[in-house]
Design a protein that fits this description.
Helix content is about 35%, strand content about 25%. Strand 9 and strand 10 form a beta hairpin. Helix 1 packs across helix 8, helix 4 packs parallel to helix 5 and helix 7 packs across helix 9.
């Protein structure tokens, strides 16, 4: 069975990832692009040779089995509900929605419609992240003690709508937009944190710098530093009793192990796979979950889990008094 697919939202992530992936995965047929910006929708359709365009899901629903929702997150709740009402399965970009309440509404709608809801936490398909707990054991590194994760550079994503810096479209800035990948992995590996300390540089707008300290079960400590104004290493370091495992935030397979005074490079997959093959795997998993009537690899409940953590962090920030003006750039409070 080939899944007839529509992509809702014709912004940068559709252009860079979802459309090329849909055209390369044999389990799906990309039928249409959907966006209320008809000019942008037509431009991408012409670029990729997609024959049909539509201004809404309703216009094209009868020709589809499923949709990828790749819009800004503030409209995903309404669009997902509409898709389920038309009997369509949904792969939703991360974040699933802006709030836990919106996530719950989407999950309920999927359940009532008896349709698949998958969330695009694509880093879960990276072999390195999937195998990380086993790799720590294979290299004899012992008990994981702490994780130090940093990522940052001046913001340069070619957004079409500008939603990542607009308070009317997003409840937060760099953490919910980009930090969500690392946070999702941490929850996946270690469970829910027992203790959280959070700081950012917002004084009422959207944060550009974040510092987050968490204590996970089994006394695993995590420090996460993120920025979209400062240059920081894109690196995750897993410190354990007998050594460390280190990899780049965007690494698919490559990592290094520091042990007994030596650091050696490794790959968890041979031959190495790349980002594109992981994107393909995500879409294949979605299509196969529809055909096989099974849960997708990343469910709506998993997508909501990281939003709950982010909401908790933002609530902690709101509970404290704010300075009257921003201090030194990069400073958090």
């Amino acid at each position: 069975m080939t899944i007839r697919l529509g992509i809702v939202g014709c912004g940068a992530i559709a252009d860079d990832m979802h459309i090329p992936t849909a055209l390369s995965v044999k389990q799906v047929q990309l039928v249409a692009l959907i966006d209320n910006d008809i000019e942008q929708c037509t431009r991408l359709a012409n670029k990729f040779g997609v024959k049909q365009t539509a201004g809404s899901i309703e216009e094209i629903a009868g020709h589809l089995d499923a949709v990828i929702i790749a819009t800004p997150p503030h409209v995903r709740q309404a669009l997902a509900k509409e898709a389920f009402q038309h009997g369509l399965h949904v792969l939703c970009e991360k974040p699933l929605a802006n709030t836990v309440a919106e996530c719950e509404t989407i999950i309920k709608a999927a359940r009532e419609a008896e349709r698949v809801l998958s969330v695009g936490h694509m880093f879960r398909f990276y072999p390195l992240r999937r195998q990380l707990p086993d790799l720590v054991k294979q290299h004899g590194l012992g008990k994981i003690l702490r994780v130090i994760a940093t990522e940052g550079k001046p913001y340069s994503w070619p957004t079409v709508t500008g939603y990542t810096v607009r308070r009317d479209m997003s409840p937060g800035g760099v953490m919910i937009n980009a930090g969500i990948h690392t946070l999702d992995s941490l929850l996946w590996w270690f469970g829910d944190p027992a203790d959280i300390r959070y700081e950012d540089d917002s004084i009422g707008g959207l944060e550009s710098n974040v510092r987050l300290w968490m204590q996970f079960p089994d006394n695993v400590e995590v420090y996460f530093r993120q920025s979209r104004t400062c240059d920081l290493p894109y690196r995750i370091c897993i410190e354990a009793g007998n050594g460390s495992l280190i990899f780049g935030t965007n690494s698919v397979t490559e990592y290094s192990v520091k042990k007994n005074g030596y650091e050696r490079n490794h790959s968890c997959v041979n031959p190495a796979v790349d980002h594109i093959s992981c994107w393909n795997e995500q879409l294949c998993d979605f299509a196969e979950s529809i055909v096989q009537n099974r849960k997708p690899f990343v469910t709506g409940e998993e997508g909501m889990r990281v939003i709950r953590l982010i909401e908790t962090c933002y609530a902690l920030k709101r509970s404290r008094p704010l300075p009257s003006k921003a201090p030194i750039p990069g400073l958090t409070w």
